[in-house]
Amino acid sequence: MGFSRSHWRSSFYGMLAVFAAGLYMASSGLAAHAQTFRVIHYFTGAGDGAYPSFPISINQYGALFGTTSDGGIRNCDGGGCGVVFKVAFRSSGWIFDTLYEFSNGSDGSLPNGPVAFDRSGAVYGAGWGNFEIYELRPSPNRSASVIAPWNINVLYGLGEAPNGDLVVDTAEQVFGTTDGGAFDEGTVFQLTPAGNGWSENTLYAFQGGADGADPAFGVIEDGSGNLYGVTRSGGTANCGTVFELVNTGSNWTKTILHNFQGMIEGCQPSGALSRDTAGNLYGNTLYSGYGQDAGTVYRLSPAGASWTFAILRTFNPGGPVGSIALDADGNVYGTTNGGGAYNFGSLFQLSQAGDGWTYTSLHDFMCPQDGCSPTGVAIDSTGNFFGLMNSGGRIAQYCDSGCGTLWELAQPR
């Protein structure tokens, strides 16, 4: 299925309400004192972009990187073609820097996933406009200022719609997924540097049905180079799957680790996988037996030659969406699209307590002030949380209901 500009518009546009101004303070199990929620950037739809549709990424230095599916150069059906941005903290506060505005030319357009990094700090991402994988590097004469141009290099036009999380390994090979379209059910691909260009290798092509279909959220990698991902549909109950790809030397072997069965177990994964140091995989589903306004957070744990599936929490209402974050203490963090004190979603923590899990709301989002439609959460090395909202925020020239926000729940700086 291809990209639809209207797909990224918040479903809350007809539901925007005005609440009393104020901030919600929440106590996190990660820190002994309260953390404070605030919006650190309101998107305007101009050079900073609009409608961030994917999770935020954090590099090794604590800088935030993301993409927007609109805004920037307005060469795409009367709208913007999307941007890649960076936000870094300096003594004076957060500084926003647009790294690149897509033009819908040979550079493509419409970023279709979060960004990944290689060892040098270069940024990689997927674009829908030319079905491309792009690389961004700082200009050779980059100034000392945080605001300076980056150069784009389109690695490869895949001819299919790449999406979701990319993996860049130590050999600078790029791994990712393409979603199902009119002629296929999606693939996992590998791009390898070859001379002055790149060669593409399809590692696995999904067949639909029990094999799974529509791997919409990319892949993650373990320390042995194995790849893990989810499909949004297919499997034994047509509710999606969790899969593993193992490099056997001569080819790649795919194994389905879990078939979602619907009902209380959940159906249709709604975000990329996360992996802890013990090898456990965590993710979300959008629906559960309680209806389309519910969902689950699940864990898959390796158990010898098999995997053990467990539901950590079922949400009703408010299905969890987007990226999940993990901390060193085994706590799980995520966002919901709905539910919470104001029914606009929440940032939550799940902490293990005996044989169960304890739910804590760290912040209940207020739409439009905080933004609307969360895309997940990321956590930095000091325990601060960050995320993007697809819409809401402040009314701007290009967005009559707000172009989205970037928020933090952080310790006092």
Short précis:
It contains no helices and 31 strands. With 413 residues, it is mainly beta. The chain has a single domain, classed as 6 Propeller (Neuraminidase).
> Mind summarizing the main beta sheet?
6 strands, antiparallel
**Architecture in CATH?**
6 Propeller
User: Helices and strands: which structural class?
Assistant: mainly beta
Q: How would you describe the shape?
A: globular
Chain-averaged pLDDT: 88
How many strands appear in the DSSP assignment? 31
Describe this structure in words.
- The strands form seven sheets. Strands 1, 2, 28, 29, 30 and 31 form a six-stranded antiparallel beta sheet that branches. Strands 19, 20, 21, 22 and 23 form a five-stranded antiparallel beta sheet that branches.
- The protein has 413 residues and is mainly beta.
- The chain has a single domain, classed as Neuraminidase, CATH 2.120.10.30.
- The protein starts with 24 loop residues before the first strand and ends with a strand.
- The radius of gyration is 20 Å and the shape is globular.
- A hairpin with a 5-residue loop joins strand 15 and strand 16.
- The chain has no helices and 31 strands.
Please supply descriptive tags for the structure shown above.
413 residues, mainly beta, Neuraminidase, 6-stranded antiparallel β-sheet, 0% helix, globular, disordered N terminus
Topology record:
Layout: E1 25-26, E2 35-42, E3 57-58, E4 64-68, E5 83-90, E6 93-101, E7 116-117, E8 123-127, E9 132-138, E10 150-157, E11 162-168, E12 174-178, E13 187-194, E14 197-205, E15 220-221, E16 227-231, E17 241-247, E18 252-259, E19 267-269, E20 274-275, E21 281-287, E22 295-303, E23 306-315, E24 319-326, E25 332-337, E26 346-353, E27 356-364, E28 372-374, E29 378-379, E30 385-391, E31 405-410
Antiparallel strand pairs: 1-2, 2-31, 3-4, 4-5, 5-6, 7-8, 8-9, 9-10, 11-12, 12-13, 13-14, 15-16, 16-17, 17-18, 19-21, 20-21, 21-22, 22-23, 24-25, 25-26, 26-27, 28-30, 29-30, 30-31
